[in-house]
Write a structure and sequence with these properties.
Helix content: 25-40%
Radius of gyration: 26 Å
CATH architecture of one domain: 2-Layer Sandwich
CATH superfamily of one domain: Bira Bifunctional Protein, Domain 2
CATH topology of one domain: BirA Bifunctional Protein, domain 2
Largest sheet: 7 strands, mixed
Strand content: 25-35%
Structural class: alpha+beta
Oligomer: single chain
Bound molecules: glycyl-adenosine-5'-phosphate
Length: about 500
């Protein structure tokens, strides 16, 4: 495929046609920046989250130090609320600082992110504008806070104002002491969380890439300050390899270290894992995940109050009355290190990934078109999703070749047996070629066909999605055969 936009259009169309992703509230015309996951999409998304949770949390070996690293570490999970105490966002800095600069078009009143406009001109088509459409149509840039605001309780007043979280991270910082007290973890250790976040993006776009409601998979990894540069490099490389292990090709994936001028005021290092999404111009990459060294910024903010830079120091910002402008909790969020008998504020490494962006990257990477022989040996073009088996929504489909001669009954028994192990799909409608092609488009790694030979010798045809190679396997060996081919999920 030579045209990137063409590829993107095809991925979007496949997502709708096969039930991966739909526009939210579509029958009412949709709502910008919100997306629904259909029957296949929800499986794919769950598989991405489960792969992450298994690889980062439950499957993690907390008894052996990773190669080259100073110590073993524990990983524990957490699920915190979407609405938190409003002071959380004031102390963290989001209330004052989590904004984009926006500009309005004076003609059509449309709003844009100032940094995304190439020229001082409204990018909408002149036909959208009443009257003349020339340059200098835009207002001066002004701040727009991205947090969705709501009210808790019956009264709509400033006292009951609350926010939908724009990241899951703060839930982990404010529970630092609860986790320490209950999970009996020692430094270094990580807390992981998967959950919805909300940002009132000015210009949601590129399909699900920039949405207003999305999911994040975040880790807050707490470590001793002196070891933090080593743990930063460890997480940066480990997270990059995770995408590679699930099939993102190394030429479309890159790790980009931020320059000093790009770093947040509290960060000693940040890297982005980026993917060359097909909706971006040639040579441009979009962020999948950020890995940030956050120092002690977050725990300190929740102890002392909102921090600001003063020279080389981070100090609590004071209001006109000389008290902290946005006070922290005042609670002790330090750690007592029994090894060194020292009290310290741990440093934090934060790998923060987007579920929806990962799903989109896996879909774009997996999309392929080729020509394969049909059941009569005639070459036919097909669309195939070459998803990693761990991510495939359906692992195996079972078909009777025809709807008679006892084949559906045998196929149904096989389907029921396989369903105990994997998400399996049964289909007896339409030509066998069409059934294969539908599964190719869904990313199903294997199709099993029961035919007349099955009735004689108990073997079935197993067809491989990527090669379309077919082989005969004894029906009673299928579970072992597929387990070997699919690998651990
Ligand atoms: N706690 C740090 C944090 O939230 P971020 O870079 O703002 O950092 C982390 O977000 C990840 O969340 C991004 O790399 C991206 O994958 C995802 N993300 C952020 N905004 C998003 C949006 N509007 N739509 C979809 N995904 C988004």
């Amino acid at each position: 495929m030579n045209n990137k936009q063409d590829l993107m259009d095809k991925v979007v169309s496949l997502c709708k046609r096969r039930g991966f992703i739909f526009q939210s509230s579509e029958i009412y015309g949709g709502i910008g920046g919100f997306w629904d996951y259909g029957p296949l999409g929800v499986e794919l998304k769950r598989n991405v989250k489960e792969a992450w949770w298994r690889d980062m949390v439950t499957g993690h070996d907390d008894t052996t130090p990773p190669p080259g690293m100073p110590s073993a570490y524990a990983m524990v999970g957490l699920e915190t609320t979407i609405i938190m105490h409003p002071q959380v966002w004031k102390a963290s800095g989001h209330y004052d600082l989590f904004h984009d600069m926006l500009v309005d078009c004076r003609h059509c009143k449309a709003r844009f992110r100032a940094d995304q406009l190439q020229a001082s001109q409204c990018p909408l088509k002149p036909s959208k504008h009443p009257g003349e459409h020339t340059t200098c149509d835009l207002t001066e840039p002004r701040e727009f806070n991205l947090m969705f605001k709501t009210y808790v309780g019956a009264l709509v007043d400033p006292e009951s104002e609350a926010f939908l979280r724009p990241e899951t991270a703060q839930g982990m910082f404010v529970n630092f002491k609860n986790v320490l007290a209950t999970a009996r973890v020692k430094l270094p250790f990580g807390i992981a969380q998967i959950g919805k976040s909300f940002r009132n993006e000015i210009t949601p776009r590129y399909f699900t890439f920039r949405s207003r409601e999305f999911e994040q998979m975040e880790i807050e990894f707490f470590c001793r300050p002196a070891e933090s540069p080593q743990w930063y490099a460890y997480w940066r490389d480990r997270r990059f390899q995770w995408y590679v292990s699930l099939g993102l090709s190394s030429e479309r994936l890159r790790l980009r270290e931020h320059g000093r001028e790009e770093l947040s005021h509290y960060s000693c290092g940040t890297a982005d894992i980026e993917y060359a999404f097909p909706f971006l111009p040639e040579g441009e990459f979009g962020e999948l995940e950020g890995i940030a060294h956050r120092g002690d910024f977050d725990l300190r903010s929740h102890m002392e109050g909102k921090l600001v830079r003063q020279g080389d120091e981070l100090v609590v910002e004071l209001g006109p009355d000389g008290k902290p402008r946005h006070p922290g909790s005042g609670k002790d969020l330090t750690y007592f290190d029994e090894e060194t008998q020292e009290r310290l504020i741990p440093h934090v490494i934060e790998p923060s990934a987007g579920v929806d962006r990962s799903v989109l990257a896996f879909l774009c990477e997996a999309y392929a078109e080729d020509v394969v022989p049909d059941e009569n040996g005639v070459p036919q073009p097909r669309v195939v999703l070459k998803l990693h088996p761990r991510l495939s929504p359906v692992k195996v489909a079972v078909f009777p070749l025809v709807k008679r001669d006892g084949m559906p009954e045998v196929a149904m028994d096989i389907y029921r047996e396989l369903k105990r192990h994997w998400n399996a799909f049964y289909d007896e409608k339409g030509s066998i070629g069409r059934r294969y092609r539908r599964q190719d488009e869904s990313g199903t790694p294997f199709c099993i066909t029961v035919d007349s030979q099955t009735l004689k010798d108990g073997t079935v045809t197993v067809r491989d999605r990527d090669t379309t190679f077919q082989e005969r396997v004894a029906a009673k060996e299928l579970v072992a055969f597929l387990r070997e081919k699919l690998g651990p999920l």
